[in-house]
């Protein structure tokens, strides 16, 4: 099927291609084109199935009204909700969002960035992977608007939107200590991501603040590769080590450990409690006591879009870091 062009529309209406171009680019009022003619052009374009060539528009105007978004894993509910929040907020500013998943792979992440730049996106919102530091620096040197969301690099100044990972983890773990638990295990997603480092620091700080000796045998780090197998092994080792509570540093780890802990609690009089930095919607339906953090995903998305639009609309890039608190909920 032949792609409909501005010339095709002008021919059908018997008007100039320039007039049609002004209408399709939102300049009808500026060029004093009547409302009646504007409506005719728009209706004919819709009727003929006209689709704007955004790449050509970007080359012509310098703007594509498109934002590129890179998350770790769009199938993870956290990132899916974050992407939706960013998309909904971007629409309010007249921007479309295209996105991809890095799978915590720096090579894939940088390839996606290149693809988005080839598509002439106006800016990038990135959940960076380990190893993306140099590429982020290149973006900043080239003055390409970008925002790091959910995680960042401590050696790079930039526009950043995150939650207070250390404080959130501290509050969750200290809440367990206040219940007189002392043997608190931790399963951490350890791929050199700063937010995970801070959550582990929060766990350690809560122990120190309450005069509980840190025991590295009660901390298990698992990587993204073969995560199901490694998380299961980590939980089994902690259960064998007579922990009273297991703190999971993200929702996926909590989900993977939940089944094992439920089976353990059914078979043993000694019950093991669960707490997680992050959450899934179904956690409200669980039949086990659990404490979990709720990240302000909508606010993360809203702030990320606000910062990227400010950069796109500005001649100078001003670095700003926004840190948001988390809520903590308990199911008894």
From TrEMBL:
The residues covered by the HTH lacI-type domain are 4-61
Sorted alphabetically, the keyword list is: DNA-binding, Transcription, Transcription regulation
Q: Which Pfam families match?
A: Peripla_BP_1 (PF00532)
Reply yes or no: does the keyword Hydrolase apply: no
Q: Name one GO molecular function term.
A: DNA-binding transcription factor activity
Q: Does the keyword Coiled coil apply?
A: no
Protein name stated in the entry: LacI family transcriptional regulator
